[in-house]
Please model this.
Amino acid sequence: MEKPIIKRVLIMENNLIEVFGKLVKTSRDTGLDIVSNYKNNIEIPQSPDEEQKALMELIKTLDVEQFHQLHKGMKYCIELSLFKLLSTIERGVGDYSFDLSMQNSSDKTQLVGENIDNELSLEYWNWIS
Model:
């Protein structure tokens, strides 16, 4: 039987991991929202940079179906990029390793560390669905 203190710590860690998952999903949605905003002339940058200009010009040329296809393709690219980032943080790169923790005012949990792996890359697909 789990001791109450251990169970409470696991619940706090799971809550922080869930919050981290929501942040990942928000990151994905932000990229998609920008494309929709450009299509609908909402929050258009006053002085767009070269990449923003290119995207805005491309979006203007698309009909509804083409825009839908672009949106789906971008969603895939953003999700894959975020997954790659999490996977790299978990596994490290060459001789480099990463520590990743999350905390609020009362709790802290290490998400990734030398001997800690909360399998974020496996959780990722649940977060974004």
Summary: The two ends are 33 Å apart (CA to CA). The longest helix spans residues 4-39.
